[in-house]
Amino acid sequence: MNVLLLYPKFPEETFWNTARSVKRLWGRPAIMPPLGLLTIASYLPDDFALRLVDRNVGEESEADWEWADVVFLSAMLAQREDYRACVAAAKRRGKPVAVGGPLTHALPDMAAADGDWVCYGEAETVIDELVNDLRAGRRGKHYQGGASTDMETVRLPRYELLPDINDYVTMDVQFSRGCPFRCEFCDIIEIYGRVPRTKSARQITAELSAIKRLGFRGYIFMVDDNFIGNRRKAKAMLEQLAAWNRAEGYPFRYYTEASINLADDDDLMRAMAEAGFFHVFIGIETPDPKLLKLTQKMQNVPGNPLEKLRRIRARGIHVTAGFIVGFDGEERGVFDAQRKFIEASGIGVAMVGLLQAIPHTQLARRLRAEGRLLEPVAADGISTREGINFIPKGALTKREYLESYAALVRDLYTPEAFFRRSLPALLDLRGNIPAAALRRNFRDVVAVIAKEIYYFGIADAALRRHFWKALIALARKNPSALEAFVFDASVFDHLRRHAAYIERELARYLAGPAEGDVLDAIATAAAPHTELMAAS
């Protein structure tokens, strides 16, 4: 059986898709490969011929379609538009489709209508049943994979299926699934549960060895939604990873996502730094503790977040972060408060989004019960298109949120503002990078710096002065932070263009909102009989 593993494109205009800048500066067409498809491929039997096409790198050919007996599609909510195009292309050619990935949780009815076989949840435990149904031609089958896969039995992803592993600037490796926290807006705990499950250190180093053997040059992203969900096992793995790095000559540098309580465990931060982690993304969301409590992000409440950021940087780990506006109970000063906090935080790459109720989350269920969820307004996970998908309950209307949000993002991503806030934090970044790691990554980092010097320091008049000021200061005072600076500057190249897109798109949306949207109302009472007050 010939299986075409097809990965849909991500929209170009999102905060997260930095592919334009990756191609411009690294000369590679994509950020990361489709780890879900590579993992599932390892479970398919030897008599299944596999061909993987990542449409973020290049589109499939007509010969690929003719060759295929069945198409496997894995997608996230943000990929929905191109996912639909892939389904339509398969149906035009009479090719049956198997569907999986987080999209099936967010939009189960759509997945059920599209797929001849649909897997909800984790696929490892149901793959044998799927294979038997594929062989027998039994269509219309649905599989409930759940969220309890023993991660220590998960097989090595088939990285060799990638046509060129160096099409990507980053390889993705998964250590754990699940998160112990209860954030109301998050779908991770809905899909993968609240009990973090981890791979063994031996599995992780085996995956890294396979990636190294295939000749990959670049970074490793530990794609866990909270890398420190199980701190004890994370520390044990990091110890083995540090030993593997030393033995292998430090082939990679690492980054991941974690909760801000990372700062409360000095041993864990030290272990991450010693294992080659140079960067972490943290969901800060808001500095207001009462809003954090309302959204059940209790892990962010204790302590001073600015002090925690300083502690993380003191261990040589660079911080980028996510922020959200749109929580219930926000007052008129919320945008000014976020702006001031982000300025004080030193976080250059501050991913600010409007809150969206992702389908089948606690937040979506609550808002539906309160009569505030705007069902006709499709939430596709790209909050810059139509913004919040519910009637707010606080001081601001949705119209005011959209207008203020566009202004906030514009202000944060002027060259002056970006480099002014990020330079002090980069100067404070401390860490000892092993000489072997410096030698291994020197050529690639220098090549990117050279391109940034041309694009930002020479060709771009608006950026030139701010870029050079930061680069010279770091070269003189803290050259160990140049790697983080290169990362920040490359993402800024994307974000400032995206900020302009946000302004244009929200202005367009406000001029002609989606049918059924409610722009000028505020919810003033709790459900089930929510009262609405028109804005004065």
Concise overview:
The chain has 536 residues and is of the alpha/beta class. The chain is 45% helix and 15% strand. The strands form four sheets. The protein has a six-stranded parallel sheet, sandwiched between helices. It has a six-stranded parallel sheet with strand order 7-10-11-12-13-14.
Oligomer: single chain
Side by side, the strands of the main sheet go 2-1-3-4-5-6
For the record, the CATH class of one domain is: Alpha Beta
β-strand percent reads 5-15%
Q: Mind describing the biggest β-sheet?
A: 6 strands, parallel
Total of helices:
21
Topology:
Elements: E1 2-7, H1 19-26, H2 35-41, E2 49-54, H3 62-67, E3 70-74, H4 80-92, E4 97-100, H5 103-106, H6 108-114, E5 117-121, H7 127-136, E6 141-146, E7 170-173, E8 176-177, H8 188-192, E9 197-198, H9 201-213, E10 219-222, H10 231-248, E11 253-258, H11 266-274, E12 277-285, H12 289-294, H13 305-314, E13 318-325, H14 334-345, E14 350-354, H15 362-369, H16 383-386, H17 398-412, H18 415-428, H19 435-457, H20 461-477, H21 482-511, E15 521-523, E16 532-534
Parallel strand pairs: 1-2, 1-3, 3-4, 4-5, 5-6, 7-10, 10-11, 11-12, 12-13, 13-14
Antiparallel strand pairs: 8-9, 15-16
Helix pairs in contact: 1-21, 9-10, 10-11, 14-17, 14-18, 17-21, 18-20, 19-21
